[in-house]
Amino acid sequence: MYVEEIEFTEWQIDEIRNALNYYRITKTSNGQQISWEQVRDEIIYSDVNREKYELDDKELEFKSESLRRFAAGTNVLKQTKLKDVTRFLIDDGLLKLSDLEEVDVYLKGMLAAHKYLAASSESSNDFIMNVEGTYSACLESIGGMWETFTLRIIADPSGRFVRVAEMYEVSAHNIFELNTLKARDAYTTIREHRTGYGFAVTEDNCLHVFLSENSPVPSAAYVQTGWLSSDYPILDICLLRHGLRHLPTRHYLAHPDGSTQLFNAFKFIPTGLPV
Questions:
Q1: Which among 81, 95, 13 has a CA at the least distance from the CA of 52?
Q2: CB burial class (10 A; 0-12, 13-18, 19+) of residue 99?
Q3: CA dist 220 to 163, 165, 240, Å?
Q4: Each residue of 3-59: pLDDT tens digit?
């Protein structure tokens, strides 16, 4: 796959947006991030883009404000500008073409499971489109360390399934409200990334998510256990997580009234994606 061949699906745009924000963070000096105008100039005057911007004030067509709004997630750049940004980020080493490729065996496996398990109705499609967003949850372990789970959920345009990226972090302090990776790095001892797919199951549209690390075999999974709120936009979602964790924790706590508290069930709430 070449940059010129990319048609830019929502999840690919999300990868590019994250890499662009990270680029700006890496250019921080004395606590100050460079301006979006400077970022724009570095993109258009880079070795991979300079030739197309050298004539007739072509650089004026690429507005720094459009770049800023794209990075903030409030707009999408035109295809030509997306390709310029993508080429620049790949040349800078912050993005790889493989990051934008969908491994066929993973997708085929998900679609096979979807065929037999997933709900297929107007309400399930509505649910898939409305669950899109970034959600986080955290838990303090027995030893005082913290686990933070961040899920980026992107709906496929078909409305049949979602693409999901998980970031799992172990830290010495609660990093839930720290919104940059640089701020979290001071406390974080483990950071793992998994990607995969999810879809709605049964008539009540229960979300099931399957994630892996460079393997078709899932290494983590989430099953929706219920809503604390039922309206859109989604205010919170309860998910039961299965898979590897690096901190000791109790499996469950039985209460006198017969109810059980599970320590792998989390209340995820909408958050920003740390960059």
A1: 81
A2: middle
A3: 14, 11, 11
A4: 888 888 877 888 898 889 888 888 877 778 889 999 999 999 899 988 887 766 565
The number of residues making up the chain comes to: 275
Tokens of residue 264, six digits: 């792998």
Q: Find residue 170's DSSP bridge partners.
A: 147, 190
pTM of the model: 0.72
Q: Where are the beta strands (DSSP E) in the chain?
A: 133-140, 146-155, 162-171, 188-201, 206-212, 220-226, 237-243, 252-254, 260-262, 265-270
Alpha-carbon span 178 to 271, nearest angstrom: 11
| CATH T-level topology, domain 104-270 | Lipocalin (2.40.128)
* Tokens found for residue 225: 């256990």
Give 8's contacts (C-beta < 8 A, 6+ positions apart): 16, 79, 82
Neighbour count for residue 79 (Cβ, 10 Å): 11
The domain spans of the chain are 3-100, 104-270
On the 0-12 / 13-18 / 19+ scale of CB atoms within 10 A, 4 is exposed
Judge whether 188 and 150 are in contact, CB under 8 Å. no
